[in-house]
Write a structure and sequence with these properties.
Radius of gyration of chain B: 22 Å
CATH architecture of the largest domain in chain A: 3-Layer(aba) Sandwich
Number of helices of chain A: 21
Largest sheet of chain B: 5 strands, mixed
Largest interface: A-B, 41 and 35 residues
Strand order of the largest sheet of chain B: 6-5-9-7-8
Helix content of chain A: 25-40%
Mean pLDDT of chain A: 93
Largest sheet of chain A: 7 strands, mixed
Helix content of chain B: 40-55%
Shape of chain A: globular
CATH topology of the largest domain in chain B: Rossmann fold
Radius of gyration of chain A: 28 Å
CATH architecture of the largest domain in chain B: 3-Layer(aba) Sandwich
Number of helices of chain B: 19
Low-confidence stretches of chain B: 438-442
Chains: A alpha/beta (673), B alpha/beta (442), C alpha+beta (163)
CATH class of the largest domain in chain A: Alpha Beta
Distance between the termini of chain A: 35 Å
Strand content of chain B: 5-15%
Low-confidence stretches of chain A: none
Shape of chain B: globular
Strand order of the largest sheet of chain A: 16-15-26-25-24-17-18
Oligomer: heterotrimer
Number of domains of chain A: 5
Strand content of chain A: 15-25%
Order of helices and strands of chain B: HHHHEHHEHEHEHHEEHEEHHEHHHHHH
Chain lengths: 673, 442, 163
Amino acid sequence: MAAVASETVNLVINDVEIAVPKGELIVESVKRLGLEIPIFCYHPRMKPVGMCRMCLVEVGFKQPDGSVRKMPKPQAACTLPAQDNMVIFTDTEMVHRDRKGVLEFLLINHPLDCPICDRGGECPLQNNTLFYGPSTSRFIEVKRHAHKAFPLSKYVTLDLERCIQCGRCVRFTEEISGDSELAFRFRGASMQPSTFELRDFTSKFSGNVIEICPVGALTNREYRFRARPWDLETKPSICLECSNGCATWFDYRVNRLVRVNGRTNEAINEEWTCDRGKFGHEHYNADNRLTVPLIRRGDRLEECDWPTAYAAILSAFGVGGDKVAMLAGSSLSNEGAYLLNRLFHRKFGSANVDYRRTAHTLPPDEAAGNAPTAIADLELKPSILVFGNSPADDIPIIFLRIRKAWFKHGARVVVAHHGETEADSFADVVLRYAPGTDADLAKGLVAARANDAAGVAQAAAACGVDESRIREAAALLGENTAIVTTDSLLNSASGADAFRALRQLGGELNRYALGANDQGFADLGLVPGPDGRGTAAILAGCADGSIESLWLAGADPFAFGDRATVEKALEQVGFVVYQGTHKSEAMGFASVVLPMAEPAEGDGTYVNAERRLQELRAVLSPPGEAKAAWRIGAELALRVGMAKPYFGAKDVAAEIFTQVPAFRGVAFGDRLN
Amino acid sequence: MGEYKLLLEHSHDPAYATLAGYQAKGGYAALKKALGMERQAIIDEVKASGLRGRGGAGFPTWIKWNGIPKDKKGKHYLICNADEGEPGTFKDKQLMETTPFLLIEGMTIAGFATQGDAGYIYIRGEFVDAAKALRKAIDEAYAAGLLGKNILGSGYDFDLYIHLGAGSYECGEESALMSSLMGERGMPRLKFPHVPLPTISGVWDRPTVINNVETYTCAPFIINNGGNWYASLGASTKNSRGTKIFSVSGHVNKPGNYEIEFGTSLMDLLEMAGGMKGGALKACVPGGSSVPIMNAQQCDGAIIGYEEMAEAGSMVGSGGCMFLNEHTCIVTFIWRTAQFYANESCGKCTPCREGTKWLLQIMERIRSGGGRSGDIELLQEVCSQIDGRSFCGLGDAAAWPVAGAIKVFRDEFEYFIEHGRSIVQSAESARMLPESPVVAVS
Amino acid sequence: MSVSLFKDVVKPIATGFGITLKRLSHKKETVFYPEQRREQYPRTRWRHFLTRYESGLERCIGCSLCAGACPARCINVVAAENTDEKRFSPGERYAERYEINMIRCIFCGYCQDACPTGAVVLRKNFELADYKRESFIYTKEMLLESFPGEADAPWVGEYEEVK
């Protein structure tokens, strides 16, 4: 994208004078007047290429005598930066003729199989043809034929006949996701985008090319033939497959999710989605959804009604104190977590609540203030240190920002991880340390910053990284560096030490959460108090019998520890409440099963990795008798006489805003205090 | 007027391709002189010489050289466009094979004038012999201290690299050449006014001079003899100075490269090449396959010069002059040209990618006897939808021959469409037809 | 007020029956439905059919354009993909489910207009009454021709046609 300077220039667009920033692309300038220039290849988030020639306009320059001298050829508005005295014509006979010409060219080899194309109805090629194109074609030769519906990957189907070679997908993988998996093969009329030797398109962001494809060449294999655009209803949602909290559109048909698309939120995901978010929502439609409460009678789980289930739970948890515990799963809403947390603390008198799944934890005073850097601010950091995680796996959308910081703003990136990461491809320095030596490397970096040669040598020997590499990396870091770590660092035995060492490095140290609402739980205080037990202690307590009742609130117990430990705990503990969305293995140990709604099936608020509070309004209705987490919490609270009834998640949220310090005075969409 | 051997003077002499032989004929005097001159003075000499780009467009060379920032803030690059792919043109091949030192010296002078750090000679992939000759010459020049660090003790450093193309015509387009040189797909890049000129931001985003082989090889003569002397050649024309090598081919008795002074008539050039073979002159494509075709009347009296040829209805182009005799079927000739462009379109922009193939498909249909009334108008329309709308010049180059041929030889097209066969029906013409499509276009 | 037997009773009855007697000689307009029925106008639009190609393949490709065009929103199409083993229609896509709610349908024929393959057609069969609301959801099995050309076969069937 052309650099936009602060100075403005005066343009004349179709006889209207307008001042625009110097260097702004004409295709953007005309939007200021409410005009539209048809486009295919241009995408505001990628470098302009001027390939499709759809945006041709006539351009002239005002001469000193007041006349306008037109350039002999029409110019592509998508690549032309605004200059002083420029005169743009978007509505002349020549422009209309050129648009018709380009569309005729695009359509001569297009199969026109719109009725069976998943893009039909929301297709830029259809729209532009309708508005600007010729009504008929003069083409009587044989069209280009190619493989229809080639499965490019598990998620993406490629139909080369429909492709108009705009290069958006190729540029996306080169400029945004950085994996460069797509490229053009062959040339001229045979040119086609493809992966190298038609290998699987394994990008972790492959779903985006489906959305940016201006025709139906790249389509969604999951959505394939599921619906036409006019069958769909769409509501805004947020993705809760990881902690990034991307804005999405939920497209559903007859209360069934059919696809997820990216929604623009400049603060988080711009407009991108990762494949986990775009294709990872099939569990909404799974056959093994829980629809009615179940209660154990003998060795069988039998259907029951909610009051029976509640009564059984309350009598089992009545023992209270240290004998009951709760483990929360990461997609529980703030409201659901808050109410259950309050139930445990106030009614059961128990502080045995936890959500952390990492092997090690930080003490509370060190765990606070996790994410000082907002995702959008990462882009402007002069240097970024990725430490102890693979961002494309842990925090995919933050990975895209890190890459953008490098690609667009020239940030220097250091990647320190024991395995290969996607970020290695653009890192200035890659520090590949021996697994488990996180703290050594972190101390080495600190030593290098302090010019402590002995410290560097010692660290280098311990972690197996070249001394010079550590020095090279440390030289790139400074007070303005954003350090990006995630909770996965705490799975390493020396992770906590590494974290302490990184704190001395200066810059903004971020420990981004991994689970969808893990950050929210931290801010809500869903952690054991001084007299409570943490995850490991809870599991141990279950196993040794000191805990009699365990509540699994939207949690898969096997995520909290190794299999043997968890199995032993579940076998030994007397009473297990499984509050969940799907039938699962843990149900085998459950005494009561509460069917819970998926996040988008109920109202709720969530806090993402950068501590941004986001509201999710129900999109679908829950299956059967399943209830949203806040409703389960509210009904239990009512039963134990704790509070006035809550009429909606909003009431619970209002209470959180007054009761929890971190949430005080925060509006939806803002970051927590 | 007439033949004037400047660049090709010693091209028959194998010794000229060696450093000793080259220096014996006065080689490297110009570089010695240039290294003692002010940089601006060299550019002024080139300006005085009136030298224009020999690759086809005829852009004044000094403007490119002068456009390089004088206050150097990083690397400056030189590129020699030796990706000579225009059908009918083979002058650079001969220059590189027989007079490699002229090119090396010329590039070194240009490099010195523009504070260049390195030069890249982008040679068409098929020109293995030329690359070998240049390789040998460059090695010799390095050994003699004429390239590399501190050339001739002047303190000026200049490196020269050879880069072989991979066989794409499009890479002869200067911005596509830069893409290719940088390891990208050989597709053209944005040009002024969309982005700064290559002299500000060219290859690797650094100031870059890019010229044709023939343009660079002129530099030593301009420095040796002065710009004004060079400008005295071709003084009879409006604005074309010096000499130009024409690669004469087609139905002539002595095809080959002929260097002439601007202002020579086209018929004189034909005379030099031994006159027509096998029949009377019917048409001429004077500047490589992409320029509009001329009929015999237009050729008669046409003067070779950039403006003069434009007046005659065609262009000097890259100097690939094809003379066609009366047995040539123009429709077939244009079909073959269309085939070339459809095959060579890089695919970047819509008009060229789809238009060149459509043109070819229509031409194929006409050639196979399936022409319809209205096809001529359709061809013209398609050409006008490509011309000026494509990303780079290849689209224009594909449209001009078709549109040009329809303008000049419309009757032949009409006849072919109406009768399903060529207007030319001699035994000679049947012998000239290709047996099968030369290039398969999928 | 006195009533005259002739003027007020006999005469009106006689006049009335007189008209009846006179009409007996006219051509009869009524038919013995359902034993007899009329030929309908050529462009009459009643019951939908999903037609087949001569090859027996379904014309419907499950594109939902009919559903999009339907002003009463009474068509529901669920598409699926043909495979070489299970092929219902030519090309990639076929209608796995195709349902028309006949109570909602206003028989405007927009679906027929919108259909890119001429699959859905409205024909002259108007006897659509039924006893249960559920029976008015016409499924794909009900709508689909059992053999190519069934939709265009004479609708009268076993009954006698009135000319």
